[in-house]
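Kindly inspect what follows.
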Amino acid sequence: MPQIDDSEKPVHMIFWLDQAFRNPNRYLRIKEAFGSNTDPRCETWTILNEFDYNLALTDSDVEKMLALDGGQFFLRTFSTTEECLDAFKDNQDKRIFFITSGSMGRHIVPLIMKQYRHVFTDQITNDPYSSVYVYCCSIENQIAWALTYSDYIQIFNFDQTLLRRLIRDIAEYYIVSGKRAYQYQELKRALQLLHWAKRLWKRYSELSNRYRSSYQNIRESQINKLIEEIESERREESGDDDAACVESCD
């Protein structure tokens, strides 16, 4: 099996807007879980539980985890609309998955859709990405304003459900990107993207073990089949190159 170069940075980012992030020392376990579990290069994953929101941390824990924002992982948190919009402006070339609280979402989502709708639109098919995640206490309270952007928005009131869906959506993004790279015969790139997708899908399946469906097994088989096809094609190309070299040396 070929080695996958994990030194290359994935092109996706996660933006999370919530007034609760005004204090950078709060919700560090949540940041770690959403940051590490959605990074396809990360070999380990973090499980959330009901105690994580008020988890007591030592000074060393805080120092370690403060590196998460804009650091080791691709999760950036914001507590104001202004700084979040500035980040969208500076990262329009990235594939952004956006989480927002309900109260802030009703104000910022219309602005984002007016200025940066292209960030949430497939540039090849022109299909919308459903990658605006509203995380709130009451789903019913968000329906009225969110319906206008129903092609882009998903609403959650439970962190673990949101995390599982986010991992799955990022995995699907890398599957599509890997297929497109394969179509353009960028075989090395395609393998890297699909191996990232495989890792994320495996993580999604492990976190969703109680809710595992036949579709998950089918999707995993599809990813593995694609990887096998590309690896086989690369071996054939390598064999042709070796044969050409032998002929030229005769």
